[in-house]
Specification:
Elements: E1 3-4, E2 37-38, H1 42-52, H2 58-64, H3 70-77, H4 93-110, H5 117-136, H6 162-186, H7 198-216
Parallel strand pairs: 1-2
């Protein structure tokens, strides 16, 4: 049986991370379920994912790479997204989490340069939390999506070049918009597996009731 991580554990206080997960930082609390560590409670996982989805990487990257100038800021932040967000809210919970996992792995695959090591560790931590969530959803535990074949990526500009900086800036921006959409979906999830937020259900009931009145009138 796997060993549970104590709730007080915080990798910000330890550069070593949980046993079997050396070197993990960035304040991730629940990592590496595949390493034999028991996943925490669903409610804790949900709270963690909501918070982790808000993490900003774009501003620090732009500052470090000298892109925090007005015209460059607009070029980066107005870029088109390569991660689809429109349909996320309509997906069943299991499909939703599997889609999140697949997209996180895609971003890690793109941001393969050493400068993104800390960000990739963070994204892998989110992915591990997603895998834990999949084990908690009814009607039965679902495995995390198996690693697929690596996608064919377009040629990468020379690392450190201006075009490389802009390209990576756009990838990070797309990731953050995607995670913003993910966070909005998670806000509708209740504290128990498979439960939806009561406020959302109440609003839905009101709208359905109004529709019935219109039809009856």
């Amino acid at each position: 049986m796997g060993q549970a991580i104590p709730e007080s554990y915080d990798t910000e206080a330890s550069a070593e991370g949980p046993r079997g997960c050396p070197g993990l930082t960035c304040g991730l609390l629940w990592l590496c379920p595949a390493a034999g560590i028991t996943c925490p409670a669903y409610e804790i996982l949900l709270s963690q994912l909501k918070n982790m989805a808000k993490r900003d990487f774009l501003n620090s990257f732009m500052t470090d790479q000298g892109l925090n100038l007005p015209h460059l800021n607009d070029t980066c932040k107005r870029s088109s997204d390569f991660l689809v967000t429109e349909t996320l809210k309509d997906l069943p919970p299991v499909t939703f989490l599997q889609t999140v996992s697949q997209n996180l792995r895609h971003v890690v695959q793109i941001l393969k340069e050493p400068v993104f090591e800390a960000m990739n560790i963070y994204l892998q931590g989110i992915d591990n939390n997603v895998c834990c969530m999949l084990q908690k959803l009814p009607p039965a535990p679902t495995a995390c999506p198996a690693p697929g074949s690596k996608r064919t990526l377009s040629p990468t500009p020379t690392v450190g070049s201006f075009s490389w900086k802009l390209e990576r800036c756009k990838v990070i921006q797309s990731y953050q918009r995607f995670m913003e959409a993910v966070g909005k979906v998670l806000e509708t999830w209740g504290p128990s597996p498979g439960q939806r937020n009561r406020n959302r259900r109440s609003l839905l009931n009101v709208l359905l009731g109004q529709r019935r009145k219109v039809r009856a009138g």
